[in-house]
Write a structure and sequence with these properties.
heterodimer; A: alpha+beta; Beta-Lactamase; Helix Hairpins; 4 domains; five-stranded antiparallel beta sheet; 50% helix; B: alpha/beta; Rossmann fold; five-stranded parallel beta sheet; 5 helices; 44% helix
Chain lengths: 545, 124
């Protein structure tokens, strides 16, 4: 018994010691711990728990845990603990007596009896407030650093962008500089080429065998070459900047100025005798640039020698023709004597041949006469004696002399004229020749049984003569050559092999020398009409027929 | 769902910064390093990106060319583009505008806050 009592007392002591130990331990633990019943009532709480909660022992024991923690949170955590037996370090909120909320990390352990019955829960947590504060501070610090880092990056990005920009701009400038250098080089080359061309051109102009003058847009001299200076006996400085009008003061330029006129338009060419034995052919050409006239070029070409040669030729023809006249006349008269029977009877055959020779001789005489007329025209010796005359009369005479020929070809002839026409001042012989020539052509190139119609009328202060035939006509492509020397159209030659081709040349000269105009209309195979006009005589006494 | 941004940019620093910033704001950021890669990614992605941040000067194919190609493609021409210009020359920005860019960022005056504002303005 005593043994047992001793054992019991020892046990009680042990239990007491143990209890003290547990209590001391419990209250030492710096971690707030409590023990709750299965019905969530706080049965035990350590000192740390009481301290942090602010409750006294009396207040805390018997309190529901749901007042110390957030209801929903603690409910679910306890449920979890009852299932898992242990819940570790769940963040939740602890509510103090004052109602202050403290973030905590809570762990819960289920206490079971050996039979598995729930005895209650241990709850332990530690205060996260400090940690939370540090966490926030850290986050802020990190943000700060991040921001600084970002700022650095941003600055770097901006700098790099700027320097790239500058790089690019420098590159562009360099490219531009190179391009400009190239352009300058090209320009320099072109300039040199232009200089060369200019020198060449200048050399040509200076040494040109003809005289050259260039007039600018305003008609003032901008260039004169040595030959032109020579021809006109002028010096460059006297001439530059002057107009044609001003230049006509100079005696050696005056004839040129007069020939050219005040304004130089279009292309002009004329022979101008400048001095004795010195004739210049003056040509003016407009200088154009893209449809606009920027000046005039005047070329002075010495034709003295050419003219001399021409004159010599004319003289030669003249002399020869004269020389030929005499023997031809002799032949004519001799033949006439033969044909008249003055040198004895002729057989039929002899007569025929002699007649042929006579005709040939006549033609030669006519040709010689025509040639002489031409030389006279060219020498300017084709002077005429103009007198007042009645054109109707002149025409009638010519017509009368051709009556036979007209009849021979069976031509219908008509002469239309008014009763009276104003008088004209003409060289009768020459005008007759002109009309004769036209009438001859109208007869010669007409068809058998054709028509000839001559009309005289007064028109616009002039006498108008026209002669219409139904002849072979003049082909269109030959029409521009009709009035030229020795011209005969192919169809005319075919019809009549004879003909000098001088008739119309002389006729034109005659009409124009009288101040008239001559022209024609013609269609090949149909016929031709020739027209000419003569000015009506003004009333001064020169002489009458 | 997070809005998708395709960033077409050849400079690493820029990519780093923008990617970080935009991802932080909750956007999903895809990256291409040049115009060619950018177009390829645009065509491959399904659904298409909600916004393109497009650098102008890049190797292989630059931003203007990319925009020209996008304009020809029915599936791409509606995607809003914010161009990233190096220097902000008026000539460049004008051309970008003509090619359909909705807004621009200028590297020499760069500000990340501006980026966010402009992105938000386009896609929210």
């Amino acid at each position: 018994m005593e043994e047992e009592n001793q054992k019991i007392s020892l046990l009680v002591e042990d239990i007491s010691l143990l209890q003290n130990y547990i209590e001391d331990l419990f209250n030492f633990l710096p971690t707030p711990i409590c023990f709750i019943s299965p019905r969530k009532v706080i049965l035990e709480a350590n000192l740390a728990f009481k301290e942090i909660s602010g409750y006294t022992t009396e207040e805390i024991i018997g309190k529901s845990i749901e007042e110390i923690f957030k209801k929903e949170e603690i409910e679910s955590l306890l449920k979890e603990a009852s299932e898992k037996e242990l819940v570790k370090e769940k963040e939740t909120v602890f509510i103090t007596r004052e109602g202050k909320e403290i973030p905590v990390s809570l762990s819960i352990k289920l206490r079971k009896s050996p039979e598995g019955e729930a005895l209650g829960y241990f709850l332990g947590f530690f205060d996260l407030s400090q940690i939370k504060i540090v966490e926030t501070q850290l986050r802020e610090k990190i943000k700060e650093l991040e921001e600084l880092g970002e700022k650095e990056l941003v600055l770097r990005i901006r700098e790099i962008a700027k320097s790239k920009d500058i790089e690019r701009k420098v590159e562009e400038l360099e490219k531009t500089r190179k391009a400009l250098m190239n352009i300058l080089e090209d320009v320099e080359e072109e300039r040199k080429k232009a200089e060369e061309e200019k020198s060449k051109t200048l050399a040509i102009i200076q040494n040109f065998v003809d005289g050259l003058l260039v007039f600018d847009k305003e008609g003032k001299v901008s260039l004169i070459n040595p030959q032109a200076e020579n021809f006109c006996k002028l010096k460059r400085k006297e001439v530059i900047g002057k107009s044609i009008l001003e230049l006509s003061q100079f005696p050696d330029f005056k004839p040129i100025a007069e020939a050219v006129g005040r304004e130089m338009k279009g292309i002009f060419r004329k022979e101008v005798p400048l001095r004795k034995d010195f004739i210049l052919e003056v040509t003016t050409v407009p200088i154009m640039r893209e449809e606009e006239k920027i000046g005039t070029l005047m070329i002075l070409h010495d034709v003295t020698r050419e003219k001399m040669i021409e004159r010599m030729k004319t003289e030669f023809v003249s002399i020869s023709a004269h020389q030929l006249r005499t023997p031809l006349s002799a032949i004519k008269w001799t033949l006439k004597m033969f044909l008249d029977g003055d040198l004895g009877e002729l057989t039929k055959e002899q007569r025929e041949f002699l007649e042929k020779i006579y005709q040939s001789n006549e033609r030669m005489i006519n040709l010689i006469n025509d040639l002489l007329n031409v030389t006279r025209i060219e020498e300017g010796r084709y002077l005429y004696r103009p007198v007042l005359a009645d054109i109707i009369q002149i025409c009638q005479s010519v017509i009368d002399s051709y009556k036979e020929e007209i009849g021979k070809k069976n031509l219908k002839f008509e002469f239309k004229r008014p009763k009276e026409l104003p008088k004209v001042r003409v060289d009768i012989e020459k005008i007759s020749f002109a009309i004769q020539n036209l009438l001859e052509n109208a007869i010669r190139y007409n068809r058998e049984g054709g028509e000839i119609e001559i009309t005289l009328e007064e028109k616009e202060g002039k006498i108008k003569f026209s002669i219409r035939d139904t002849g072979i006509g003049i082909p269109k492509d030959q029409q521009h050559r009709v009035f030229t020397k020795f011209f005969r159209a192919p169809n005319a030659i075919r019809m009549e092999t004879e003909g000098s081709g001088l008739g119309l040349f002389i006729t034109k000269n005659i009409i124009e020398a009288h101040g008239g105009e001559i022209w024609f209309e013609s269609e090949e195979g149909k016929g031709t009409t020739f027209y000419f006009t003569l000015p009506v005589a003004s009333n001064t006494n020169v002489g009458t027929i | 769902m997070a809005k998708k941004i395709l960033l077409v940019e050849d400079e690493d620093i820029m990519v780093d910064l923008l990617q970080r910033k935009l991802t932080k704001e909750g956007y999903e950021v895809f990256v291409a390093r040049d115009g060619e890669e950018g177009l390829k990614k645009m065509r491959e992605m399904d659904p298409k990106p909600d916004l393109i941040l497009l650098d102008i000067i890049m190797p292989k194919m630059g931003g203007f060319e990319v925009m020209e190609e996008m304009a020809k493609d029915e599936s791409l021409k509606k995607i809003p583009v914010i161009v990233i210009s190096n220097s902000g020359q008026p000539v460049e920005l004008d051309r970008a505008k003509k090619l359909g860019a909705k807004d621009w960022l200028i590297k020499t005056e760069f500000d990340p806050k501006e980026v966010l504002e402009k992105v938000k303005k386009q896609i929210g």
